[in-house]
Protein 1
Amino acid sequence: MTRALVSVPPAAKRGEIVDVRAMIAHPMETGYRMGPNGAEIPRDIITRFVCTYDGAEVFSAEFFPAVSANPFVSFNLIATESGTLAFEWTDDKGQIETASAEIVVS
Amino acid sequence: MRRPAASLVAFAALALALLGGGAQAGDIAPHERRSGRTFMAPETQAMQADDTTNPGMLWVLQGAGLWDEKAGTSGRSCAGCHGAAEAMRGVAARYPAFDPASGKPIDLAGRIRQCRSARQGAPDLARDSDALLALTTFVAHQLRGMPIAPPKDPRLDPYRETGRQIFTTRMGQLDLSCANCHDDNWNQRLAGSAVTQAHPTGYPLYRLEWQGIGSLQRRMRNCMIGVRAEPFAAGSDDFIALELHLMQRAAGMAIETPGVRP
């Protein structure tokens, strides 16, 4: 089950700068730790985060092992049209988690 | 190796101060009680205050899903009997409560486990499992802002007394009781961290050090390891008694679940 929380203002004026926040539950296991039996815990991190606004990429980030568990990203963008903000997190296994939010621009 | 050594020195210094000081401040006056939140940096307080930045909300979200999910041989969900989770407001604020079935007090997580096995016929959830923490967080979150309300059940009194005794009994190689720090020296710092008054207002809470959510018992286990005592078993009567005492001590303080702590 994807556990992601995204925060986008439901409504904005055209040209307004809005605050977007996205958080996802993920262990972000670095691959440098050992388990209680001395066995290596395999690396399992999110490597890429992308946000698209009506299909166009507006923000992306690469994550590395130093990023803590349950990564939180916050950024600003200019509200241009009413539409969908789609969020996508890709992890080491190639698994993709998604979330989305609507914004109404007047 | 620098950090453990530094904290060891601080621990030893505090232990010496406690052994030499002698002045027993005793219980904290009601008007002096402070949530652990007020000891944190403004940035961490802001992180807890805003649901869009509070990572504990991820577990609230998971718990909300589990609340509506059918489980076990009964084919019923939590919501199937209890309805909307708002119905749990006021109920959960009184835990640990007396459980007539076992003749002992039971905490909220224990009650959820019992409900699952006895009523839902679902497989048991381990203590400190993500699913149990999520459900407990979700239920406790319904009470955010409400005061902690320990029940006035006389059957609980002997257990509360046991809890108070454990709280004030020195233990471990450092020979410290909970009260030595949390009643008598809550305004001091230990290895750079605030000691705090140990009021369980935000549990289960997200600890940045854990990078996850954890129970009150996990926090107490941490403290016991800190004074180099052997921690009680998870879900043991001793831990429940301590929880009872802590809730009584914090009666009337507002619940913050999910809290964020450094």
Protein 2
Amino acid sequence: MNFYSIRHLTRFRYAQPVRESIMEVHMHPRTDEAQHCLSFSLSVSPRCRVFSYRDHYGNNVQHFDIPGEHNQLVILAESVIEQHLMDPLPTALPPSAWQDLADQVEDGDYGEMLLPSQFTQDSAALRQLAAELRVSRAEDPLTVVRELTESLYRYFEYVPRSTRVDSPIDEAILSRKGVCQDFTHTMIALLRSLGIPARYVSGYLYRGSDDHDRSTPDATHAWVEALLPGLNWVGFDPTNNLVAGLRHIRTAIGRDYADVPPTHGIFRGDAESDLYVAVKVEASSTAPVLDRRQPVPDDWTVLVERAREAPPRPAQSASAQRAQQQQ
Amino acid sequence: MLSRVADSLYWMSRYLERAENTVRQLDVTLSLLLDTSETSTETRWNRLMISLGCTDCMAWSGDIDAMARKLIFDTSDPAAINACIHAARENARQVREEISTEQWQRLNRLFHQMHSPQAQLQSRGNISDLLASIIDGIHLFKGVTDTTMIHGDGWQFIRLGRYLERAYATATLLDVHRETLLHVQEGENNGYRYLELVGLLRCCTSFEAYCQVYTADIVPERILDFLLLNRDFPHALRYAIDGIRHSLEAIESAGARRAPEALHACVGRLQAMLRYTTIEEILRGDTGAFLHSIRAQCQQIHEVLYSHYMHYSVQAALAL
Amino acid sequence: MSSQQAEDFTLHTPETPDRILGDYPVGKVYDEMRAPDGSLRAHYQALAAMLATLSPEELQRRKQSADLSFLTQGITFTVYGRDEGTERIFPYDLLPRLITASEWRMIERGLTQRIVALNHFLRDIYSDARILAEKIVPRQLVYSCRHYRRQMCGLEVPRNVYIAVVGSDLLRLPSGEFVVLEDNLRVPSGVSYMLTNRRVMKRTFPRLFQSYGVQPIEHYPQLLLATLRSLAPEGRLEPNIVLLTPGVYNSAYFEHTYLARQMGIDLVEGRDLVTHDNIVYMRTTGGLKRVDVIYRRVDDDYSDPLAFRPDTALGCAGLFNAYRAGNVTVTNAFGTGLADDKGMYAYVPRMIRYYLGEEPILNNVETYLLTEDIQRRHVLANLDKLVVKAVGESGGYGMLIGPHASTAEREEFARAIEANPRNYIAQPTLDFSCAPCLFDGRLEPRHVDLRPYILFGDKVQIVPGGLTRVALEKGSLVVNSSQGGGSKDTWVLE
């Protein structure tokens, strides 16, 4: 099946009214070689004007602000996308592929995807893991990436809510459990250390009745794209030990999660917030018609992965503020 | 003008006015203690605390000198003179570029004077001299404020702070002294009573001004009349409210935005209350309720003013 | 012969300048006042002659009156900590530093060329990045720079001006040649001291000033305002221009207030600003007022909690989106720190050749890149002769002056370099020039640099002069005000 429709509902509820909320969202599926976004809509309550721009990774970003007081903020993203079947990957690449990769990196703009980023920092735990999994520039790049996908799949236990949005990868590596972001960040850090450009993909994974994925169904998902000579960027999903295919729907790419969180914002007010996220992905073999009047059903699958934390508030002590002013 | 700047100027001014008021009341209280009277030192101290609006702070310790020093220097207590000067200076520092160099220097000098060892020394020697020099410092600041600053919005917000603080403090002071003022005790010594009444006038720096209007014939009704309803004396309530009205009109006419009806209404009501009444009417009615109402209205003016000029909601401002 | 020459330059005053010159040494460095043979340089003669006529008492009196003048003008900084709230004046030297018209013309041409090239570079990096594709500047140097702002990619900035306000630091080598030590492309400070020094000097030495024919600099605030206005978003004919300060605790707060006042614009803090629908407003007593141009004295990181550091209390949420939408100009642009990165500095001459097809008029100081193996080995072997600087630091911090450092300090730096070579550069220790300074009525040489201030709006403009910073400590090479440096007025002669 080539067509997918996605409804992605996010709701922030505040214990006290807040004001001057301002938010950016990465929910607009990408349009590129393998995937075509046929329609996208974003509904926000309270009503406001939604603006959008394209960031330098080619992601479509929406943003808006709500000046008045509100007790809750609801964001509903609806999209329809069409996937194109890509040629199957070869079983392996020739040994010369390492040199081809080096040449491609030398000539192209891949530098950012080779350097450590916020969530993919080098650490003792990471080096230990690399030794344990025997990560090295063996065979050819494709085989290395494939084997790493599988060994990470086996190394980690998938445990929803075992880590937080801002957990460093060390936490997951040392406890051997985590969620898709952790597996993805770990794999990116290891690939970059081998000189293979690797980037973070944020999106959704459709689960049909015959699929037996480990990750939570109908949820936001994350996986890795690695640059391979002659094949360009290829997606690998260490959470489910898969090569990304038709069921992997891509919303945004970045160096890591920090570049592309689904929602990112701040507000004024002193209130605890409670976040609820629900995603529904449906597949069809023909282009579906989105019924815009359809009410949001209550029985959606509740996402239990990630995005538990409310965005940090810039509440600060006077001394911290003084220190900042001295920059 | 930026709301933040108006906010800081307003509070700078309020805190300094508060400091000045506290200094004067403390000075009068201390000098009244020099004469023997039926009123105990503790009663006087507690009365001072109530009229300064701090009923639950600075509990009487039995040592008047120590208490006085605490009221002057103890920055941990928000009612202390030093705490007020400190707060005024902090506000001034936030808007250093909006006030003149002279203003800043005056305020800074006062601040450092309060922290100098000489001030401590003086407080143990001649406390009255110290209090007089603090008043001098504040007067100098007010003088350079009026002579070195553009009389624009910033200056008007300084006046608003000054007059609102003064009106509120004067109403509180009169309320506290209402009993002694209006009810003569049988067999009360006339000499002591005279001192009390003069002390009340001196709390509002108005003894000389009173004498010019009424001669040295000190009569409680006339004191009330003078401090509440006089049109021309700067420490009279009516003068202060007229000043608030005047400053608000100046701010409104200079800006693009009309002040809300609520603000016009509450200032107008209070002004009318003081303008179109006589002291006889006030005394015939419930004087306590009258003074209480003035304080409540001052508080209301502050709130409306604040929510219109300083802390308004972005949404409301966008809707305009 | 040399005595004959000295005779020629001797002053036509009854007193010789020896009384104040005393044993003023002429060392191996370039001396702004004396030629290597000890004679006075021509343009310093009038100054020396004037000094010779003044008694030590009179000099002292003028010094005191200048002190007072700084104080009463409020040109002070507030001391925090122990002496909470006391105001001090900035250290300065009473004597002007003189620059001839021809020297200045060269500096002006050189800086203009350099700033134009640096601006080209920023525009290129944040659009097509041709210079990277052509491998003139290594990509990894850009991506590993902590001042690189990927959010800027593809953004249009008004008039393509990224760096509207610049202060570049120049040194003078023993040969007399001026070289550029660094470019300050983020929030260069110090211009208020240039202006106030001049005001005080004109009062202290009025006749000398008049006789020298000094080019004026007083119009800098007006030029700055015109520059900011020229960068306003299109269609905003009467732009509301503000200066954004981190707040009263910032060390340059005096300058922020000074410039805002001189330009007659509002001095705002982040908390005064709000954004709605991609428009920036400031909260005034008259309601929300739209802001069109922000002269920003807050670092990138602290400017917008949505786009940059989320924990900032100094910024305005949504500012960057409004900027991206072209509804507000923020200057200097974000991400300009990329071009004044100490590692990037080494590539500036190549940028000048690449973008302008010209040879640099002002040279760089020789710089070793520690990411290059050969250069790093050389540096590590010669740490005792070199100056090592951390690329991300400024103000004289994070620096190793090899010849003055202890073995332990050098070893510590060697380890730090090995651990993160990208984070450091090395330069030879520079014998930069000295100028005469007044100490107790006598002249003594002290090391000086020069920071001219460059404005770039519809064109590049440099007021003739700048801030001459002085290492007041004898023999010291550190001119930064945070570390015992002072300043002196700079007279560019007609």
